[in-house]
Amino acid sequence: METMLPYHASQALDSLLPADIEFDNNNDLAKAALLFALENGQEFLLEEQLELIDELSKEASIYVDLNASTTEIANSLCYFFKDVKGFQGNSENYYDPENSFLNKVLENRRGIPISMAVLYISVASRLGFSDVVGIGFPGHFLIRFGEDDNVSGEGVYVDPYYHKLINDSECEERLKSLFGSHARMHRSYLGTVSNREFVARMARNLVEIYQEKHLYELALICCTRAINTEPGLAEDHYVRANLYEKLDCYGAAVQEFSRFIYLSPKDDRIGDIKVRIRRLREASNKPKYVH
User: Fold this and answer.
1) What share of the chain is helix, strand, coil (3-state, %, to 5)?
2) Which end of the chain, N or C, is less surrounded by CB atoms within 10 Å?
């Protein structure tokens, strides 16, 4: 059995996350994350990695009592991942691209909030606890278990990076650390995230990382994934235009900037973008010589 090629992984990922999907299957989340890794050049057998997650779930069943309260189930999973299996947030090398690839997270037992969330949700769903979702909290991915375990009816929130339950006051403190002392907690920050949004957010994380490393071709792959998975967001086209420009693909850059203007016609950057479009068109029309 051979490793799936990136092109075929892209096709499989598109099929797994169709645009007209009406509901998510948590059991598909790990597969989507693994296909994303394959699309980005990781080499492994998909079936073997899925079997590793199945085995992880069987082992977790020893520690998790599904008849217990939602809080106890969440705490048990935190204990399992942290104390039994030794998974940790990779604070020493947080921006290593491998933290976004589920196969490497399984191998190294190190990850970032979103990749750790994929593991939590995948294992919980395989155990039979389906009422668990990703939460797109600003700057730090969270998980919600259940809907009615506390008075507010908002479920139990878990930080998968630190393997701990988290309350509103702690969320607010994290907002302040990111955005300043005037930041305040709002329930809109605890919106759920679909499988499509999971993949798109993972892709955007890597776009930023690869750009910092000047790996523009790799960033372009991830930006394209974000656009294909969650289409219609103007900023993704702006980012892809800049990447095409850095890669001297002037015609493609013009198309992406034009798409951005169409999607966000009142953006403050429009004037500058139109100037850049003229320059890019001039550059693309210049004859190229081979020396």
Assistant:
1) 60, 5, 35
2) C
With b for 16 or more beta-carbon neighbours within 10 A and e for fewer, the 141-168 pattern comes to bbbbbbeebeeeeebbbbbbbbbeebee
Inter-residue contact 175 to 166 (CB < 8 Å): no
Q: Which long-range contacts (CB under 8 A, 24 or more apart) does 252-258 make?
A: 253/280, 254/280, 254/281, 254/284
- Assign 61 to helix, strand or coil: coil
Distance CA 16, CA 229 (A): 10
CA distance from start to end of the chain: 45
279 vs 258: CA distance, rounded Å: 14
Q: Which amino acid is at 33?
A: A
The 3-state DSSP class for residue 132 equals strand
CA 13 – CA 34 distance, rounded (Å)? 9
Per-residue pLDDT tens over the stretch 239-272? 999 999 999 999 999 999 999 999 999 999 999 9
Tokens of 77: 């999973």
Sequence-ordered list of residues with C-beta below 8 angstroms from that of 249, at least 6 positions apart, any chain: none
Instruction: Please state the φ and ψ torsions of residue 42, each to the nearest 5 degrees.
Output: -70, 150
253 to each of 230, 247, 249, 291, how far by Cα in Å? 20, 9, 6, 26
Which token pair is 159?
Answer: 């930080």
**How does residue 151 score in pLDDT terms, banded at 50, 70 and 90?**
very low
- Of 201, 190, 251, which is closest to residue 226 (Cα–Cα)? 201
Task: Give the phi and the psi of residue 88 in degrees, each rounded to 5.
Answer: -140, 155
Q: State both tokens at 57.
A: 């779930």
- The predicted model scores a pTM of 0.91
